[in-house]
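Table S2 (text version). Query chain:
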Amino acid sequence: MKTWTAIVLAGNRPGENGFAESHNVTAKALIPVGGEPMLGRVLKALLGSPSVARIVVLAQDAEALLGGDLAWAAAEARISTAAGGDGISTSIAGIAGTVAAPWPVLVTTADHALLRPEMVEAFIAGIGDADAAFAMVERRVVEQVHPGTKRTWIKFSDGHYSGANLFALTNASAQTALTFWAKAEKDRKKALRMLMFFGPTIFLRAVTRTISIGGAAAKAGKELGLRVKVVTLPFPEAAIDVDKPADLELVEQILAGA
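Corresponding structure-token output:
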């Protein structure tokens, strides 16, 4: 049943303009992947997901993104746009739970060019009764298929994990998670600094490999007063986004071999 609002983060981060300009586009979300803007690939994956009722493209100038090759998205009834603010978390907080983006909310990114409906559905199926959830992929799953990819790995007792750019906020209580997100946002690519935001106990147990990723999520949730769950996905491509030219090259190779 279609009940979820999907928010697609499509704004430019500091330092990304050069990447976009090198591909003759005005925003990173518009860089061509497999012959079409990667934002378009993400939107099609979400439109093909049975659980997604509506999609909101969130960016500094979101309307400007839906032109040219993405004019079809502007005409799609299930897709709307919203203007982003100074940071990701505050931008999400500004629309999550509103008429434009009612609960429950799924968050993903425009550079998740390999996103597929089955990834979205597997993530949603694993959320259960959590207030907030996030998707991860274990290192062995990724490197068995794509040994050359370089990801940010966070190490726990049960494995090394990388984010899958899928987040869930199921109700108003999850706004607390956005406050945490705002603090951690600048260090999202630095594993040890990210762990420090979960508190000294989780940090030390993660560094000494004495806590599992699920245990860390549950403990962090307790600190926040939330039911927080990590959903581990079996899809290696779920951990691959397009942050840099090497990522783009890998994604193109994957698509060419699909």
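Notes on Table S2: The chain is about 40% helix and 20% strand. The first strand starts at residue 4 and ends at 9.
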